[in-house]
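Morning!

This is the sequence you dropped in the shared folder:
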Amino acid sequence: MITKDTQSMKAIVSTKYGSPDVLKFQEVEKPTPGDDEVLVKIHAASVTRAHCMMRTGFPLIGRLFLGLTKPKNTISGTDLAGVVEATGKNVSDFSVGEEVFGSTDINMGCYAEYAVIKKDDILIHKPKNITFEEATAILDGSTTALPFLQSIAKVQRGQKVLINGASGGIGTAAVQLAKFFGAHVTGVCGPTNQEMVKSLGADEVIDYSQTDFTRSDTRYDIIFDTVGKQSFKKCKSVLMPFGIYLSPVLNFGLLMDMFVTSLSGKKRAIFAATGMLKTEEKLENIGFISSLINQEKLKVIIDRTFRLEETADAHRYVDQGHKRGNVVLVMG
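The structure's back. C-alpha cells below.
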C-alpha cells in the first residue's frame, strides 16, 4: 500500500498471464535508484510483438525467465526513452536532465512514468536529431534485425534476401539494413503497405494476400521471417542450396528444424534470442544503428502512439498483426 509519505507514479501492472485485459492502469510506488542506478522519467516506451507474447506467457519456454505461473515483474515493458531524474552516488556517466534511451530487458518496468536502470546496463545518451518516440523504437526493431542480418546471416552484396513481415517493426528495419549491406531485397507485406516498403528500399514487394512466396520460382540466399508466420519446411523449397531461414519467433518446430539442419550442413534454420546478447554487443549494435540514423541512412517508422493508460488498447492493436513499423506509448 502507498502511504501519503510515499512518492507514487502511474504504471501498467499485470499480475497474471492472459489477454490485454490483464494490463491494469494503477498507481504504484515510484522507484528509488540505488548507488549504481539511474532513475529515468520516461517520455516514451515501445509496445512490441514480443511484449504481447510475454503478456500471454507463450511460448511456455519464456516462463523460465518471466515467471512460471505469473509474471515475476508485474510492470511490463522493456524499452524506454526519457530524461534522467536522479542518479546513484556511483554513477558518473549520466547527469540529471540528460536525455537518454535504454532497455531493461527481462527486468521489465518500462510501462510506467519512471524506471531505474543500472549504470552498466543498456542506457545511452539520446541523439539530438531523433524524438523520444523514435529512440525507444530503435531498441526493438533495428537492434533485433541487425544481429540476424549482420552477425548470423552475414549478408553479402548481391545476395537475394526476402523479408517476411516487411512492414512491421523488425521488418521495416530489416529491409533498410539488408539494402544497406548491398543485398537485392524482396519485402513481403499486405496490400496497404506496399508503397511504404518500397520507399524503404525494397527492390521488389510481394502482396501476401495475392501471392505465396513459398511457391515462387525465385530462390533466395536468406529468408528472414520477422513475424514467424511461415516455417522452414515451407520456405525450404525457395532457398538456395546453402540458404538460411531466420526467425526471431521460437517454437518447437523451429527448434527441431534447427537441430536437423545443423547436421546437414546445407540449408539451415536459425533462431537467435537477440535480447540475450552481452551488454557490450548490444551497445555496439545500438551505436551502429544510431550512426545510420545520423547519416539519414535508416528511418524509424512510427505507426501509432497511445497514452500510458491506453496500453491494453495498444496491445490489442499489435495483436492484430497489421502494424506499420512501431507502436509507442507516450507519457503525460
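Headline: The CA atoms of residues 66 and 72 lie 6 Å apart.

More detail when I'm at my desk.
O.
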